[in-house]
Amino acid sequence: MPLPRTAGSALLALALASVAVPASASSTAAAAADVRYVALGDSYASGTGAGSYSDIACTRSRNAYPALWADANDPAAFSFAACGGAKIPDVLADQVDELDEDTTLVSLSIGGNDSGFASTMLSCQYSTQSACERALRTAGEYVVNELPGELDSLYATVRARAPHAEVVIVGYPHLYKEGGLCLGGLSSAKRTAVNQGSDLLNETIAGRAAAAGFAFADGRPAFAGHEICTSDAWISGSNVHPTAEGHESAYLPAFSAAVSGN
Questions:
Q1: Architecture of domain 35-258
Q2: Contact present, 67 and 46 (Cβ < 8 Å)
Q3: Residues designated as active site
């Protein structure tokens, strides 16, 4: 006995739905299974200051954006090689070996330590305005004259080691709110000078990333309104690094947006 037309239509719709759902789920699972992610870089990538460390020596944090991205996306493979204090030679010596022809996604944050970030911040925190500006000028000369070539060499190595990977270079945030008072912090003039140094560093990194064909995730807009001296800072005033909230609410969205398909 033939089914009524309405019943037959309902069964047909149900059958089509039962076919469509597994196909979609299967394609999504296949895409996730293809991602092999390697996270390289310095303390801003490893998560120094974000707590919950899986590796104390390198201050690799489970709250850092690479680990958070991996948790959220469940890639087929994830290698967290970033290490606090790393400079470009350290990445070349200790981290790029994690890359290979099967790597499909790479994140990299580097250049701050090479430009003398730590010593510059000490000069600005504990010395005069003129000493702070001198330290920033010295760092700026390195960023303009030497860093571009060193980044080009590093980026070429990354591409050679991971020829099929999407590479996202992650920049640095402005550290301080500019203008107004900052109780217990730097003067307004010092804060402006430090942020200008960050601009120069980011512009150099972004330029070399573009020349290499890599994406650039800018940390400055990601942290805007949450710098040191704001009421809701996502950067620690004590260690001048992003907090766990900074990684989750600023770096993670910036990195995720830079990854194609997101």
A1: 3-Layer(aba) Sandwich (3.40)
A2: no
A3: 43, 241
